[in-house]
Prior knowledge:
Low-confidence stretches: 172-176
Number of helices: 13
Number of domains: 2
Structural class: mainly alpha
Largest sheet: 2 strands, antiparallel
Strand content: under 5%
Oligomer: single chain
Number of strands: 6
Helix content: 55-70%
Mean pLDDT: 83
Strand order of the largest sheet: 1-2
Amino acid sequence: MKYEVILYLLFLFLIYSFLGWVLEVIALAVKERKFVNRGITNGPFCTIYGIGAVLCTIALADATNVFSVFIGCLVYGTILEFITGRFLEKFNKNKWWDYSHKRFNLDGYICLEYSLLWGALGVLMFYIINPFLKFIFSHINIVICTIFVFILLLLIIIDDISSFVTLKFIKTDKMKDVSNRLGNWIFRHIKRRLEKAYPNVKKKPKVKENFAEGVGFYKLFAIFLFSSFLGAIVEMIYCRYSMGRWMSRSSLIFGEVSLVWGLALVVASVLLYRYRNRDNTFLFFLGTIIGGAYEYICSVFTEFFFGTIFWDYSKIPFNINGRINLLYCFFWGFATVIFIKKIYPVLSECIEAIPRKIGIIVANIMFVVVVIDLILTGSAMMRYKTRNMGEEATNIVEVICDKCFDDEFMESRWQNMKRVKKD
């Protein structure tokens, strides 16, 4: 991908984060008749707007009409607002906004009124603001633009870190504990040293500690590993049944790992498990919408960054740009019901039964392995793209990719992969 494209997306992120802040401030000023600095950070940025704008700009680049842009922005804006609301409440134990008093809301995180607003703002963005910003960007010196973008990004990162650290302490309402932590650490360190030196000082009772309790990193990572492997195997069997041949459906160079499945069930665990007691129709509807939007953005992501597509539903009825189709969206709905109602409770219990020390060691090792595999896959995919654009290897990484992951290897590894020809 060209540097100018990345810079342009970062430029859009900053501009829309600022415009979102302005919109929020004006809306609240009209309602409260006073200025209120909106957003999580201290600066004049609401990054949810920037993220949403970039997400929709990439995901809906091939939208053909106003209606598809409206629906796409409505769906992605609503999902992003739902995820952000859940994350902030989980992090801070408080709701940052509450639409419970509005009709057609879901737990106060989202509501129909603001979902429609996301769609309308998306149309305004696509047909009026984006062309104007693209014109401005094309007339700015790239060096000046780079300095401007990266200075602002650095300030936002610093602001975000300070804001979230503050939120962490506001959550417990124990700011004074900060000054006591060093003393507590010293006390615990000395206590452990004395007990090692003099075992008879105190015999500590053995407490059985479970592995990956709650919905933390280790639990989610274990779910990711399980569902990634299961998804890859299921797709291999499906290809054998539907196409008459075995085909690897792994997302990575090594191993059978389907990132699409793994990330999807992690998202389902975080967002939807709390609704496990709701009726199946409700879960099916949520799974169909979120799963379809998720699969669509995955298709766009691989095409946008690597110039390749791994599935094409153009020949299946009721498809959207060949990226998703109604039948497979329904499949996501059924999968959500089965996972939330049946699989997750059993899987969670099995994960927590793993001895803590063994579980942590294995999880950390597997995490490193997956990260290395991701880096290798990303490098190989990027080189595959540039190699087929006629570009020669310019560094040691590209030389290694040409030697170890040539076109024959890549196309045999991902037999369903197609290169996208750009005009």
